[in-house]
Design brief:
By secondary structure, this protein is α+β, with helices and mostly antiparallel strands. The protein has seven helices and eleven strands. 38% of the residues lie in helices and 22% in strands.
């Protein structure tokens, strides 16, 4: 077995699983992390765990390290001893992807001035009812785009006077990244399924056990 993240995109069985199962699993994550029809912020962490589980399924738990220090802001998992970031975003057009969550404007500015890509990134574009993608954005492509368009265009800071939720990759950066010929991608049509699932059932089942 080829030991690289790129091999996911060369494995037809895995590609088909991603096209089919990711829809179902992301729907379960939304059910688990919704209240009164509104998604909670924690859905991002649930989606991240689903993608990490895919990596474990494909490559085995020996090569996928999930116990990442909190100081590693951009690293969500380590695959074959290389850091990997996992990000998800919703919409027909991706308008912004979080680089760091902070409510401190000073920290946001400091981060933007010092930021540089540190690892490859898996980016999942969720577009219910339309086309989306499972992208691999190599570190070198991120570096190229940052250098090409400049830091101010690459990074979007929260607007002053608003409730800041963090520093984001700009729409311009995402447009350049996702159109770069060096990236890998899997096209996904995001069709919802009818799912009979109650997020409390499994916990009730545990309580019912002797």
């Amino acid at each position: 077995m080829k030991k690289s993240i790129e091999s996911i995109f060369e494995d037809s069985k895995i590609v088909e699983k991603i096209k089919k199962k990711l829809l179902y699993l992301f729907q379960l994550a939304e059910i688990d992390n919704s209240r009164d029809g509104k998604l909670g912020m924690e859905v991002g962490s649930a989606r991240e765990r689903i993608v990490i589980a895919l990596l474990i399924y494909k490559f085995g738990s020996e090569d996928v390290k999930t116990n990442i220090p909190i100081t590693k802001a951009e690293t969500d998992v380590i695959l074959f001893n290389k850091p990997l970031s996992i990000k998800t975003a919703s919409g027909k057009k991706i308008n912004g992807v979080k680089l760091i969550w902070t409510v401190d404007p000073k920290k946001a500015i400091e981060f933007s001035k010092a930021y540089k890509p540190t690892c490859d990134t898996i980016l999942v574009q969720i577009n219910w009812g339309g086309m989306g993608y499972f992208y691999l954005l190599p570190k070198e492509v991120q570096e190229e785009v940052l250098k090409k368009i400049g830091r101010k265009k690459y990074i979007r800071l929260p607007k002053q006077g608003t409730n800041p939720r963090g520093v984001e990759l700009s729409s311009a950066a995402l447009d350049q990244l996702t159109k770069n010929p060096k990236i890998k991608k899997i096209e996904i049509f995001w069709k919802r399924e009818e799912i009979k699932y109650n997020s409390y059932d499994r916990w009730v089942d545990y309580w019912n056990e002797e």
